[in-house]
Amino acid sequence: MQLEISEEALPVYEALASSVRIRIIKLLAKQKMNIKEIAHELGLSSAIVTMHIKKLEDANIIKTEKIGQQKISSLRVDNIEIHFPEKIFNAFDTLETTIPVGHYTNYSVEPTCGLATATHFIGKVDEPKYFMDPSRMEAQILWFTKGYLEYQTPNFLTVDQKLEMIELSMEISSEFPFSNDNWPSDITFSLNGIELGTWTSPGDFADIRGKYTPDWYPDNLNQYGLLKTIRIMNHGTYMEGEPLSEVKLSDIDERTDTWQLRIEVKNDAENIGGCTLFGKDFGNYNQDIKVKMYYS
């Protein structure tokens, strides 16, 4: 589950602000339980436990199913990630372009793989040839197990503008047939042929539906990814503030006419767990791939 600092996320924060509910979460992390079993473990009445369970259900942290004559509760999420508002680099001016996920200019992918628009799948899934279908330009989600996608976008910097930082951001996850929250994948990023580093995606998520994922899309397929931001700076390359590589801004030719971004799962990666990219009509973030130049 991914959260932002917003009023929409308050039910989750409120649900976690209770020692009793924290204890319930810890119990359900070990096994599914009914109300009576939870009440016995906590030394509380069933009525009080029911109230706490309802709070956790409303926050989509747990789910309760009727099995026979019993109502059984279990965890819905493996982890919760909180995104704080993006830090603004006020000292610099910016130029920003966005790239829809279907606007790649080169590719080589292996199944499992596929694409979909906001309304339908494009061709047959697990058939790489459909990655050349003209309607791929409308794709809002795509996935592959091994291989790469390359995107290009113009470099609008002028000769009198000095590049201070490059920022790349996208919603991304692993790729597993259907979904798997624990499915690591080593995804490598390159810019203009220079390898920026490799990030290990933790999984392919379908514990809850993506905020923007359209209603027609099946519940058991990849619903959302993680919003990852790569910053190439004067002293190295970072992802979410953590070092990704020693590649510095001076290693990148800032006078090139285009920026070429490559997203890849290599054949020799330690964790070959695929890649899923989410556009603005899928997942939890209303955005395509963003390329942002900070300059002075």
UniProtKB/TrEMBL annotation:
<dbReference type="InterPro" id="IPR051081">
    <property type="entry name" value="HTH_MetalResp_TranReg"/>
</dbReference>
<keyword id="KW-0804">Transcription</keyword>
<keyword id="KW-0238">DNA-binding</keyword>
<dbReference type="InterPro" id="IPR011991">
    <property type="entry name" value="ArsR-like_HTH"/>
</dbReference>
<dbReference type="GO" id="GO:0003677">
    <property type="term" value="F:DNA binding"/>
</dbReference>
<dbReference type="Pfam" id="PF01022">
    <property type="entry name" value="HTH_5"/>
</dbReference>
<dbReference type="InterPro" id="IPR036388">
    <property type="entry name" value="WH-like_DNA-bd_sf"/>
</dbReference>
<feature type="domain" description="HTH arsR-type">
    <location>
        <begin position="1"/>
        <end position="95"/>
    </location>
</feature>
<dbReference type="InterPro" id="IPR016943">
    <property type="entry name" value="UCP030050_HTH"/>
</dbReference>
<keyword id="KW-0805">Transcription regulation</keyword>
<dbReference type="GO" id="GO:0003700">
    <property type="term" value="F:DNA-binding transcription factor activity"/>
</dbReference>
<protein>
    <submittedName>
        <fullName>ArsR family transcriptional regulator</fullName>
    </submittedName>
</protein>
<dbReference type="InterPro" id="IPR001845">
    <property type="entry name" value="HTH_ArsR_DNA-bd_dom"/>
</dbReference>
<dbReference type="InterPro" id="IPR036390">
    <property type="entry name" value="WH_DNA-bd_sf"/>
</dbReference>
